[in-house]
């Protein structure tokens, strides 16, 4: 084993051994490291307002309205372009958010603690379907729902999470992979496990039965409700593998709707970015590829941690949602073994005789084989405020892996 | 198509088109047709006390203690042997019960209505794990739990079911088969779908949060909580296919712990019985095949309706529980196509490219091929009061299908 292989073995073992436990909810300003009053976090690598896509702009506008900082789009834009409010990636603050990923100071966020290595990670609340902030919608009904989530649901949800004594999200995911989830686009099983774990505690923590019922129903009706804690869990696992000297392991993959960016364990905080692609997939009735935004969101943290498209073999029913056949789902996972350095100990795939999922993307293998990581994803409309229009598959550009490998060679003198 | 094939096509179409909806809970005495104060229902074909196995006797004793008719085993036995209390099969009363299946007059039962054909079916409540009546345990802790279920849980559960407006169990099963359940031994997904559907209504119907929490927790912690409504749903589907003149479709398979019995669509209420086998499977630590009771329970109604072992390909993770490999699970389903007349429209298997489950066992095909239906099952200790000691696979004796085919030939003059 050469030194890079050794470094990768160390990094991937840290990723696999991380045990992310959901411990509570907190206000972003209070709990996210480096969060401040004039900061909004967003998905993907750093980006300016000028280069931001429709859905990201829409979510920024919506978050500033939610915060009471702006009354409309023009006021929100002025706050950003003047520099009064700044934009930084979630990933710079131990956080992740699906799609636009916009997280503002007063939002409630899930707190996930890696019990093995001690690091924490954060993610915002999932709003469910239809017109939602994460897809760039910011109308009054979006605001009404956000306010209910934060004023009514969050305090009780937080109390319920604490009453569980902490929910082991790695264990939840392991179970969900045996129930047809892949943990990214398909979180049906995980979401109802999450709901049933919390429901008794919500019933006890709520001021009355009607409030309890509304919160349980909001979780139970949302087959993605667990996505955000899952993403925070994957972030906690990926961060545990970051910063290993000499490692070519990819520890971040994220998109801001314009650029796809990656970071590498042995290359510090440096991003390698290229144009994000438009996903290939199935569109909701009335929409087509021409309506689609480029790939967006931090949810690629799932693939980074060895689930999502990497675990597709576990989720044959997902093809009704993202296109393809069950055999394609098997092949998707098999292909990912080509570019990863380990098989996961906790995440196993019954359909592959309980083989561990492919985990730990090796930059070198991507460049050598030309096989880029597969990503399952939702598809956002390219205009702010419309929302989700489909779901499908996408890959990052190969060039960013090549760039990273060149940088790695320079950094380490190969 | 000959006349038998035509009759079978009619029968299996009725089975497939039946739409079983859980509409409420009722007291067995009030809602089960032909139920009476001095009657206990039990699983499987008719049996006398003398020939009954340990777990069935234990459950009868427990039910009579629960009813306040007996204080101990001796008093219970005297009631039965004197004829003061009679035993009849659940199946004679549109009902089914897992394992011993004992259902007494004051027990709460699920009411399932077939919205297509109008027939109803019933099943008792699932007690969860450990020492439970259905495995023949009847000690004080079993009684305490039964009393809580009937006094505290049942009224609220019934109100919650009614508040859903009716739960389509065929739709629930279709979804659960895409989430790694086979609907008999593995009901993890179905049980949490059931729990999350009911939880908001339980929160509203309960007198206080603590009571709501206890009921939701009892359902959520029990990965078999949906088995009983599922069995009632399968009974409603199978009964819809019964009584078709000239049909060789098997519409009942059931075991009482001593005998395995079947009934046939075109042969009225007549049972064909033979010795039930001891299941092959995995035993809990400390137990072995010598401890096992013969196969017991009405839960074979799931296989009769095209799920359970017939849908094993959908549930590769089940092999950790019943033995075998994921490939065996695929092969189990493939084999069942050999003895069935249709593929289910509602129940599909992602792993087989969404092929419908094999449904409608044809007596003729069983006898011609020598392939008997596969059954997934729990394994009971042979002595009353011990409980579950494992889970595995079993088949009915071929001879009962041969007997039925001879009877069919006599009846119809072939």
Q: Which CATH architecture of the largest domain in chain A would you pick?
A: Alpha-Beta Complex
| Multimeric state | homodimer
Give the overall pLDDT of chain A as a whole number. Answer: 96
CATH topology of the largest domain in chain A: Enterococcus faecalis V583 fold
Helix content of chain A: 25-40%
Beta-strand content estimate of chain A: 15-25%
Biggest sheet overview of chain A: 5 strands, mixed
DSSP summary, beta strand count of chain A: 16
Low-confidence stretches of chain A: none
Can you offer a commentary on this structure?
- 2 copies of one chain form a homodimer.
- Chain A has helices at 3-17, 28-31, 54-66, 73-81, 140-163, 169-177, 188-205, 209-220, 227-240, 301-304, 319-322, 326-336, 363-369, 398-412, and strands at 20-27, 39-42, 86-89, 95-96, 108-114, 120-124, 167-168, 250-256, 259-264, 272-275, 280-283, 296-297, 340-349, 355-361, 375-380, 388-394.
- In chain A, the strands form 5 sheets. A 5-stranded mixed sheet of chain A has the order 4-6-5-1-7. The first copy, chain A, has a 4-stranded antiparallel sheet with strand order 10-9-8-12. Chain A has a 3-stranded antiparallel sheet with strand order 11-16-15, with no helix packed on it.
- The radius of gyration of chain A is 20 Å and the shape is globular.
- Helices cover 38% and strands 21% of the residues of chain A.
- The first copy, chain A, is built from 14 helices and 16 strands.
- The first copy, chain A, has 414 residues and is α+β, with helices and mostly antiparallel strands.
- In chain A, helix 3 (54-66) packs across helix 4 and helix 13 packs across helix 14.
- Chain A has 2 domains: 17-231, Enterococcus faecalis V583 fold, CATH 3.90.1710; 242-412, v583 fold.
- The mean pLDDT of chain A is 96.
- The two termini of chain A are 16 Å apart.
- At the A-B interface, helix 7 and helix 8 of A face helix 7 and helix 8 of B.
